UniProtKB/TrEMBL annotation:
This is 6-bladed beta-propeller. GO terms for molecular function: ubiquitin protein ligase activity; zinc ion binding. Keywords: Repeat. The keyword Hydrolase does not apply. InterPro entries: 6-blade_b-propeller_TolB-like, NHL_repeat, TRIM-NHL_E3_ligases. It holds the Pfam family NHL. PANTHER family: E3 UBIQUITIN-PROTEIN LIGASE NHLRC1-RELATED (PTHR24104), PROTEIN LIN-41 (PTHR24104:SF25). GO terms for biological process: proteasome-mediated ubiquitin-dependent protein catabolic process; protein polyubiquitination. NHL repeats lie at residues 75-118, 130-166, 174-213, 220-260. It comes from the Bacteria. It comes from Candidatus Entotheonella gemina. The keyword Nucleus does not apply.
Length: 342
């Protein structure tokens, strides 16, 4: 019998980001993927009326700005866009292949765009709207497995699809509903070290775990705001010990679960002013004074609509806050176990 983890020591590290349409900063960061050399690829999904903010911001975990690439699409009229190759309308997720190429899903265009690590546009999977094998309806979360195959949450079709990185259809599972293996607008995804797949089943307020071929292994979570309950979970991530992290979107918190879905703890947020934020405040010293006089500023540290969560190989947890244009970073220390460890 595997040991149960009763406590996880999460230590707040720092906050990354500030609200910017250009340069060092984010505009509604919706998801982040970790690359090599401590790089972070942050997918920013700005308002359709401010397309210049829709982009991928590249920086380091220590908040050194590197570059930005991809671009939003200018709106020509109500729901009319002038899009071309390499452009994004409503991007939803980002994933890094073994060769460090960057894949971006777009729920408006129903396509996957591909860039190299320097931001050069490489190509796309041609638009494939529909519900047939390999077709997409509002794709959201993406994750590569150990064989470099890409799993995509096909949110509008209430299923998961598996492809080669070139876009060849391999497998699918799921349908609309609330039973085991069924979905209601799924969103986030992660794959653990064993190849098992975790899906945030958004409107069913739960997390489901599957084998690589789609067999439902576990489901946990019910609607609510108490410990272990969920309200529109949007992101899910799994670390090397099998600990599960959930971005509990409408409950404004990060929840942590054991390998069997048992609740361990919840975090409400501990944000501080980021390095980029300090740089902006230092450019106008009066702004520091305004902050000191602000009422209720303590609320600033708390999560507001955490939407994406990512875990890297160094046990760092990154939580994207779209509304606050930032990422809160935590580091996991050794967990506390009860029972034998096998």
């Amino acid at each position: 019998m595997p040991a149960q983890i009763t406590h996880v020591n999460l230590q707040y590290s720092h906050t990354i980001g500030r609200g910017e349409q250009f340069g060092p900063g984010f505009t509604q960061p919706i998801f982040m993927a970790r690359g090599a050399d401590d790089l972070m690829y942050v997918l920013c999904r700005a308002s359709e009326y401010r397309p210049e903010g829709t982009r991928i911001t590249v920086c380091t975990v220590d908040e050194e700005y590197v570059t930005a690439f991809a671009r939003g699409v200018p709106q020509q009229g109500p729901h009319e866009f002038n899009f071309d190759d390499g452009s994004l309308v409503w991007p939803t997720s980002i994933a890094i292949a073994r060769d460090e190429n960057v894949y971006v899903s777009d729920e408006w265009l129903n396509r996957i765009s591909i860039f190299n690590r320097d931001g050069d546009y490489l190509g796309k999977w041609e638009e494939r709207s529909g519900d047939g094998d390999g077709e997409l309806n509002r794709p959201s979360g993406m994750a590569f497995d150990a064989d470099d195959n890409l799993y995509i949450v096909d949110s509008g079709n209430n299923r998961v699809q598996k492809f080669t990185k070139e876009g060849q259809f391999l497998d699918k599972w799921g349908s609309e509903g609330s039973g085991d293996g069924e979905f209601n607008m799924p969103w986030g995804i992660d794959i653990d070290s064993q190849g098992d797949v975790y899906i945030s089943d958004w409107r069913n307020d739960r997390i489901q775990k599957f084998s690589p071929n789609g067999q439902c292994l576990m489901a946990f979570g019910t609607s609510g705001s108490e410990e272990g309950e969920l309200n529109r979970p949007s992101g899910v991530a799994v670390d090397r010990d099998g600990i599960i992290y959930v971005a509990d979107w409408l409950n404004n918190r990060l929840q942590v679960f054991d390998v069997d879905g048992t609740f361990i703890e919840a975090r409400a947020g501990e944000a501080t002013v980021s390095k980029w934020g300090k740089d902006k405040l230092d450019a106008n010293a009066e702004m520091w004074g305004e902050r000191e006089r602000a009422y209720g500023l303590d609320r600033e540290k708390r999560f507001w609509g955490p939407i994406g969560v990512t875990v890297d190989d160094e046990n760092r947890i990154f939580v994207c806050e779209q509304a606050r244009n930032r990422i809160q970073v935590y580091r996991k220390q050794s967990p506390t176990f009860v029972g034998p460890r096998l």
